[in-house]
Design a protein that fits this description.
Length: about 70
């Protein structure tokens, strides 16, 4: 199944959870935010939120600086 990940096509397993996607991207221990179809998904909901075909997923990493 295909989603849009940060604006680019990305293949995932059918009914994959946000938590699975983040783990597959090796970002589980990173300071990130995830939005699906422009709606922020709280980290506490990642294990419950199943992705659907054509979802638009944005993953944003926090970067320190000043």
């Amino acid at each position: 199944m295909e989603i849009q990940l940060n604006g680019a096509p990305h293949q995932i397993r059918s009914a994959q959870l946000v938590a699975d996607l983040i783990a597959d991207l090796s970002l589980m221990d990173k300071a990130i935010a995830v939005a699906v179809n422009r709606q922020i998904i709280p980290r506490s909901c990642w294990a419950d939120h199943a992705l659907q075909a054509n979802d638009k997923v944005d993953v944003v990493r926090a970067i320190g600086g000043g």
